[in-house]
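Retro notes, item 3 of 5
We never archived the inputs for the pyridoxal-5'-phosphate complex last cycle. Fixing that now. Sequence and ligand:
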Amino acid sequence: MKYPLLKTELPGPRASKLISTDHEFVSPSYTRVHDLVVEKAKGVWVHDVDGNIFLDFTAGIAVCATGHCHPEVVKVIKEQADRLLHMSGTDFYYTPQIALAEKLSSLVPGGHPMKVYFGNSGAEAVEAAFKVARWHTRRELNIAFYGAFHGRTMGALSLTASKTIQKSHYHPFVPGITHIPYAYCYRCPYNLFYPDCGLECVNWVEESLFRTTIPPEEVAAIFVEPIQGEGGYIVPPPDFHSKLSKIARKYGILYVADEVQSGMGRTGRVFAMEHFDVVPDVIALAKGIASGLPLGAMMASAEIMDWKAGSHASTFGGNPVSCQAALATIKLLEQSLMSNASAQGEYLISGLRKMQKEYECMGDVRGMGLMVGVELVKDRETKERANELRNSIIIKAFHKGLLLLGCGENSIRLCPGLTVKSEEIDVCLSIIDEVLRDVAW
Ligand code: PLP
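Structure as it came back at the time:
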């Protein structure tokens, strides 16, 4: 079995030197959880500049869907780079972008063809969704959720309500956005229990919000992550999206699914919303779509995407190299990686749930496919958040060669490349177990 291999102290000498140069010249706004300077990566294994080898359960923040540098993705990137790097889909046509739009449209369940707008990132996909919703509905108000992360450009950031540091000193934001509680059942905002709650968090929208605060006929869209990502890998109850989207439809409000983190096979289906039997009006995609090349996509039906030439565009959006990488990614997802995500996700969750029996601090283990979160608490009864413990688990795992990221205030996310094998999950679980034996209760 392959294990992480640490040859130096962390960071090693070359990494330390590079990090100090980075601190001199690179923007200090990045979070930078680990002192890791990456040299190369393959599958779920990452090599740093000092020759240390790490097991990567971050996939570059849920981006490298096909694992790092999948040979078939790299091959099409090289071939496309030889043919055409850029021409701008804004003013010209080229085959990879057309082919990708057609393919993405065919992936929408239930024979609901959609048109595709291409950008370069998740935030751009969300911005495009925001703009098309205004354009199509001619309405000014929008709804988003506490805990939501939709990106950091001003429109997307206005919809975001994840951490105040992301919003500090940037006010005022785009007006007309109301944030409401998400279906975070582990910490129900109404102190109720599913299913006895009758989905009070959804009822409240119609019975209270629309009666007292915002007129529904002025709301353009509800922006929602099928599973909250940065907010803590929070999986809502099975009927949450269907009930909420029905209310949206009743009032002509667009249901916009931000699938930037949850989409592209990560949960075992192309779109996480498929698990909830909902076809959204608008879909935002990015991250895993092109296995690491920058690409964002916003999809909507032809009826909704009725904006006129010149109303929205981006010079680099839908770059031909990224589009080829996306086509190769989708092929691999369809061949085997989505089913691998389902199977390995179950394996990972069951391993963590076994561990949860031993460690009191593992308050909640949740997820779908390879979008898996563990919420750390000081006490199972009070559910007091164990933020420092969470941080120390991530750092200690790094020093044992396992790369993890946090999400929410006190959760760990596990989102490896969808190529991950059960032996690699075993290594991940045994490192987490070792770390917990050290620090947990
Ligand atoms: N939407 C969701 C759900 C995300 O998780 C993210 C990034 O984490 C974004 C949007 C923003 O994507 P990007 O960082 O590519 O702009």
